[in-house]
Recover the amino acids of this structure.
């Protein structure tokens, strides 16, 4: 006999979030961070450099390089998307902005996949709420829409999504295709053909983005869950031909994904067993805590509340499928060298898992989430505004002095448009808080309205009020511009020991022709990384090169380069 569902949802609680408000929230979240921002160091600007070399024909499409250096992540599709966007952009458009167009679409794909994936999981018979004796329980479609709204809000509320979700890197491309694969497996019972096509596209896309192992694990586990899932309205029949046919087609998609990865040499052994130290454990806990907040406590509550269905002999795919995605991602996060970017891939499934906690939350728990969120995001928003006012007016003096100390040489300027956007976002947040503290307690997604709204508010304020400051401190533009002023006339430039990010910055923003240093100088200038004591590397021949300047990043003294001029 099936275990009873823990969800008790009256019809009034299955109100869907107004579509206009939800779409505007998603649009604001996607655009903030893609408009007006420079490529930040280091992964963001490095990816831009690989895309630029593909677009210019300086590298082969199946082997992207940056001045002969292969990417650290063996990905292809992320660089192809950026190069295609550059090639197809009109002449008046900045290529660095054109690159962001497909990546904004990938973030939108992740948002849509989270909503639809949660929706179809909530449509599952075993996910439905308890039927009341005299009626009045939530209708299946209304319940699924409300749950999907909660899942999408939980996804946007995750703090780790903000920056990594707006970079033009392989991580965001992986997120988009991981979300597509999650959606496909969630909707397999309802739209079989579309789901299989999306699953194959998601698996192949994830492999081409440098995560073939995760692609195989996601898809393989999803196939097993699909075969074990039994429709509560039908007799148990694990040999259902439609199930076996779907699984066979999914296996073809998995084989195609594996074949692409093998053909183009995308398989890499990346497993790194972390050292068993307290510092390593503390770092992992901190990352998991802040990166996935507030979805992770809700997801844990979901697993506990629905445990009878999860561990029942009849598997419940609305819990098992997102839980599988989350567990695979967590395992990869703890054994890879880039845990934050790996953890990003599990956010759609984690958000869906968090949504199923909403029908079982106690009122006290919901109130605790609301109060914590209100204090946290009001404090963050207030801090952002105070620092911006200090940058513009010099008052209060302490924040202004802190900005001058951390970003020497930065000159703030006033933008009326960004000011209006920031004011509008703050007003909307105020109205949302007023609505939430009122007597509107029916909507099932209400506990995630403030976390999502606060996350979007703070990200919008950062990308409007603080954007010039962040561009100054987080990009290489200031370093590149200061260096170009010392290198006149420019001509070609040789390099020694530059990181990939600096090479990309000088090629893209400095528009320099960079070459590796030669035994016999071929260019009038040389740019080199200094040694730890800020002296010139021993490979620089003092009889051939004359040190002209030591250039420091204005906001980061560790980002220093040495500029040499060829002796005549």
């Amino acid at each position: 006999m099936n275990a009873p569902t823990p969800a008790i949802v009256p019809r009034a609680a299955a109100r869907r979030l107004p579509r206009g408000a939800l779409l505007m929230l998603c649009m604001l979240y996607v655009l903030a961070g893609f408009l007006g921002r420079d490529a930040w160091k280091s992964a963001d600007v490095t990816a831009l450099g690989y895309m630029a070399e593909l677009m210019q024909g300086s590298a082969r499409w199946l082997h992207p390089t940056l001045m002969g250096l292969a990417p650290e992540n063996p990905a292809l599709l992320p660089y192809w998307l950026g190069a295609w966007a550059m090639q197809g952009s009109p002449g008046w458009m900045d290529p660095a902005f054109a690159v962001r167009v497909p990546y904004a679409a990938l973030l939108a794909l992740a948002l849509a996949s989270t909503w639809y994936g949660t929706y179809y999981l909530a449509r599952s018979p075993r996910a439905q709420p308890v039927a009341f004796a005299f009626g009045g329980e939530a209708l299946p479609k209304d319940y699924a829409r409300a749950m999907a709204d909660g899942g999408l809000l939980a996804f946007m509320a995750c703090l780790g999504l903000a920056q990594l979700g707006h970079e033009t890197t392989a991580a965001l491309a992986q997120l988009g295709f991981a979300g597509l694969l999650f959606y496909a497996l969630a909707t397999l019972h309802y739209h079989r053909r579309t789901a299989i096509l999306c699953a194959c596209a998601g698996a192949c896309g994830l492999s081409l983005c440098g995560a073939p192992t995760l692609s195989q694990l996601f898809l393989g586990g999803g196939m097993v869950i699909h075969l074990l899932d039994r429709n509560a309205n039908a007799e148990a029949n694990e040999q259902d031909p439609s199930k076996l046919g779907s699984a066979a087609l999914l296996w073809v998609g998995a084989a195609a994904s594996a074949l692409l990865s093998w053909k183009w040499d995308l398989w890499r052994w990346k497993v790194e067993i972390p050292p068993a130290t307290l510092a390593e454990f503390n770092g992992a806990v901190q990352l998991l805590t802040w990166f996935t907040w507030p979805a992770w406590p809700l997801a844990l509550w979901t697993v506990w509340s629905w445990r009878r269905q999860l561990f029942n002999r009849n598997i419940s795919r609305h819990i098992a499928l997102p839980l599988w995605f989350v567990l695979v991602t967590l395992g990869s996060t703890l054994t890879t060298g880039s845990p934050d970017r790996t953890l990003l891939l599990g956010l759609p499934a984690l958000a869906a898992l968090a949504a199923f906690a909403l029908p079982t939350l106690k009122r006290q728990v919901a109130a605790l989430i609301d109060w914590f969120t209100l204090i946290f995001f009001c404090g963050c928003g207030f801090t952002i505004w105070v620092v911006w006012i200090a940058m513009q007016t010099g008052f209060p003096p302490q924040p202004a002095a802190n900005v001058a100390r951390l970003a020497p040489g930065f000159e703030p300027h006033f933008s009326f448009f960004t000011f209006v956007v920031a004011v509008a976002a703050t007003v909307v947040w105020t109205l949302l808080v007023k609505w939430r503290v009122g007597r509107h307690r029916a909507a099932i997604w209400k506990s995630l309205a403030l976390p999502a709204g606060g996350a979007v508010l703070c990200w919008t304020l950062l990308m409007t009020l603080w954007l010039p400051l962040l561009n100054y401190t987080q990009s290489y533009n200031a370093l590149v511009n200061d260096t170009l002023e010392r290198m006149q006339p420019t001509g070609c430039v040789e390099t020694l020991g530059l990181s990939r990010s600096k090479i990309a910055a000088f090629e893209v923003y400095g528009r320099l022709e960079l070459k590796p240093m030669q035994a016999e100088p071929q260019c009038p200038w040389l740019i080199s990384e200094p040694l730890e004591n800020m002296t010139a590397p021993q490979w620089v021949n003092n009889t051939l090169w004359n040190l002209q300047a030591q250039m420091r990043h204005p906001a980061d003294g560790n980002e220093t380069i040495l500029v040499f001029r060829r002796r005549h």
